[in-house]
Amino acid sequence: MEATKSVVCYDYVNHPYEKVCKALTLHANEVFHAATKSAETRAELVAAGLHVKIAGIEFGKEILVDIKSYVDVEKKHERKLSIQLEWKAANSSRLFPVMEAQLDVYPITSTETQLDFKGEYAPPLGIVGKAIDALMGRRIAEASVHHFVSEVADFLRKNLD
Fold first, then answer.
1. Which domain holds residue 123?
2. Mean pLDDT, residues 110-131
3. How far, in Å, CA of 102 to CA of 135, rounded?
4. Residue 56 pLDDT > 80
5. Total structural domains in the chain?
6. Are the C-beta atoms of residues 25 and 70 closer than 8 Å to each other?
7. At residue 89, does pLDDT exceed 90?
8. pLDDT-above-90 percentage for the chain
């Protein structure tokens, strides 16, 4: 079994939890599509371009975001929407890691909502992939996740009324 690497990122949206949840449960594909400025959306898959800069070098790859499930939790003192998703490279997918992730959405205040991304990936290509991950892959994964969460939050901030 391959050892997985964890990536965590968070951001917030200055809109009530109910509005953010409604946008993400009814229109997650469109939100992810618009936030990543993608050219293509199909069924439960979103083709998205993630581009990040590491040490002045830009890395970019078209990815497919597959929304696996939504879980709405409402307990006595807790409300949370969890979106299970997976992303992988749209092309040459065996050369790139697959990210299994959960995007948790919950209220901070009556007018602010938190987005927490928790993901795991296993570097592909065995020992070669582990070496690449150690050199730069981990930084690319972290920057990609940060970019994705930041763009989703920014899109929601600007487009919810």
1. 5-159
2. 86
3. 26
4. no
5. 1
6. yes
7. no
8. 39
